[in-house]
Amino acid sequence: MIIDIDRLSPEGLEIERDFEFFNSELVEEEAVFLEPAHAEVTLRRTGDEILLKGRIKTKISLICCRCLSPFELPVDSHFDLVYLPEELEEEKEQLETEDLLKNFYYNRRVNLRKIILEQVNLTFPARPLCSEDCPGICPVCGKNIKEEGCSCDLKKDDHRFKKLKIYLKDNR
Ligand SMILES: [Zn+2]
Ligand SMILES: [Zn+2]
Whose atoms come closest to the Cα of 162: which ligand? Predict the structure, then answer.
């Protein structure tokens, strides 16, 4: 969905719609959309500055980095962005520090689909976990402890070993 800056009325634009993306467009390799991304966006123009505010809701399936099982990540992301015309990008170095966080639009157009996708991609945790205390995989029998359970007799000493294994898995 491309928005022509010059055709944007002074009152701006309000958009509410679903965006469909390919799973391959997500930065997380194994991430899968469980539903389309529902976006509510307001676009306002002040001079050449575009203010984009909104909310995205969707559900994504991710793989837990500890137990390697898929889990559902609900996304409910709010964003508040400023887009400046591309001409200003060249002057970026002279812009104030706070301006460095600003984004740029090209050819007098804002690609809303691309922006929504970027925002979805920003919501991924660095280390996806099905739950904060996910016990991971048993270092002895290799079972998913939470899902399958395991009756291995992990002695106290082995406990450290287990932690190490989890650590290694997380940092692969
Ligand atoms: Zn897990
Ligand atoms: Zn076990």
Answer: 2
Rounded Cα gap, residues 49 and 103, in angstroms: 10
Q: Which amino acid is at 37?
A: A
For CA atoms 94, 97, 102, 103, give the dihedral sign. positive
| Res. 146 pLDDT band, cuts 50 70 90 | confident
Distances (CA, A) of 97 to 7, 89, 92: 30, 13, 9
Ligand number with the minimum distance to the CA of 141: 2
Q: Return phi, psi of residue 8, to 5°.
A: -75, 125
Query: How is the chain split into domains, by residue range?
Result: 2-122, 135-172
pTM for this structure?
0.80
pLDDT (tens digit per residue) in 98-129: 555 678 999 999 999 999 999 999 999 999 99
Please answer whether residues 170 and 66 qualify as being in contact, where contact means their C-beta atoms are separated by less than 8 angstroms: yes
Measured in Å, residue 105 CA sits from the centre of ligand 1 at: 40
**How many angstroms separate the alpha carbon of residue 172 from the centre of ligand 1?**
15
Between the CA of 26 and the centroid of ligand 1 the distance, in Å, is 20
Whether 53 and 41 have beta carbons less than 8 Å apart is answered as yes
Question: How close is the Cα of 145 to the center of ligand 2, in Å?
Answer: 7
